[in-house]
Design goal:
- There is one protein chain.
- With 348 residues, the chain is mainly α.
- It has 13 helices and 2 strands.
- A two-stranded antiparallel ribbon has the order 1-2.
- Strand 1 (26-27) and strand 2 (30-31) form a beta hairpin.
Length: 348
Amino acid sequence: MHFAEQAEPAQVEHLFRIATRSCPGSRDGREQSTGLTIDGVGALFCLLSAAGFGAMAVFGKLSYDAGVSVDALLLVRFGLAGGVLLIVALARGALRNLPRRAVLIGLGMGVFGYAAQAGLYFSALARIDASLVALILYVYPVLVMTVTVALGRERASRRRVWALGMALAGIGLVLGGAMSGRFDAVGVLLALGAAIVYTAYILVGDRATVDVPPLALSALVCVGAFGTFLVSGLIRGAVGGAGPFRGDFDFAAVGWLWLAALAMVSTVAAILLFFAGMARVGPSVASILSILEPVVTVVAAAAVFGEHLSPTQWFGGTLVLSAVLIVQWPSRSTATALPAADEYLVRS
């Protein structure tokens, strides 16, 4: 196999980042070098965004402890977040003159793609530790890289092969460490399914949403996902004969607090902070800083729930995050310009 040493595109993580070629601070789809200085405020915004996304699993677990079901969590999260993001997008004019095709694509990605990913993720979270879910899910940037190389969209390089090997070894150690205790195979498969579905979601969105403003896209995807869980709740009620959403909201009052935090902190605030940070530091730096996300999940889960990783799992998790860092880090040839930010993704 011939390995081409070439500029690596900025590939960014988790729940949903869809391509934008028109990120602020770039021209002709290429992030321009601004020297070695990184805007401190922009970096802080990106880190706060990563912390918000990282806390998502903890808020989800706390919601479950209050008696919230997976179905109710997904319905409320996307209902609140979608409504607020839609208002923000309208206020900022992000939806103005958006073609009908773009609107339908954004909604469709929420209805079919992100709803499936979120359903798998939060179902896994109901069965296994938050830290384990976070580390399993975080193999998706490497999966995206692998599939794009296999499809011929990008060329293989030694750096990418090393990243793939490290990610596979790391996830093997993480899962191997989990098997030494109580091992929930279904939960692990759900988390792996979330990573795979998210990979497909990114690859489809990369080609289908190039001209959609990221804020508008995030709002449309959230609204689309809300539509999926609203319809599924209505169907469940009709089939079961108990009426729509019967029993879904019979949980402790504190559950609403955690659901609000999930929607407003780990979705709306995290997305808006990410956009604000990316506008100041650019996609490559934003993607690297976002690697803080699974670290926040692991630390917060240990503090709140007493979850802990074995030394083997810590080493495996370090390998996974190092592989992601290798994929994200710009090569020397990007000192003057990066490739078009096609792989840069907006998350929610």
